[in-house]
Amino acid sequence: MFIRTEGFKDFIRFYPVVSIIVALQVVIWLFTSLVPGWGEWLYYTGVGFNYGIEQGEYWRLVTPIFLHGGIAHLIFNSFSLILFAPALEQMLGKVKFLFVYFAAGIAANVLTFFVVSDPFYAHVGASGAIFGLFGLYIFMIFFEKKLIDQQSAQLIFIISAVGLVMTFLRPNINITGHLFGFIAGFALGPIVLQNVKAFVPRPRRPRVRPGGVGFDPNRWNKKRYRWQPYIRKIIFWFFIILVALGVIARFF
Fold it and tell me: Active-site residue among 19, 80, 127, 152?
């Protein structure tokens, strides 16, 4: 489920919603980071700011999902989307996937507003929405086991656990947003997983040479997939390293 073998064009064709979300995140980050004046205005107008929400600026419950505080924040969230969101887009369909993603993200921001009492608290990031996807996967593991294979279940369980641990260890993290995004995704499970079928890997698009001779997309399978047995270990240790960095950052 989480091993991406598609080429760039195939990924966009198979998972257009995920592609658009990631592209928007990158474009908005570039705009807010590189365009003086207008970029700063967009960032500070969209940031989740409790005092602004109290004054009726309710768009701040949505816009933080598209904003990021730095390149590392952007890369981490985009990487998580590219890796874990495509299976859900295929299984749920475009509309239900968008519903889960934004419902979890908005729920995380709403609960942050009500739970965090500091009127000057500010936050950005798609982490609440992404944790909502993790919460939905965890619901599958416990209540819809037919939708997820055992290896994928083990991987997502470990990564969800590591992500929640990181929430408490790393500085400047919206703990409330992460937790309630996760809970929202889990709670949406019974609603959005009705009549859903398990993920089926998409076939690669066959290439055709100018002369009309078809190119067998499986020709290089043996070479291409030699690394697949190690991908789960790579993902696992990637998150372990992030946790270690989070722990170190607490002391410096």
Answer: 127
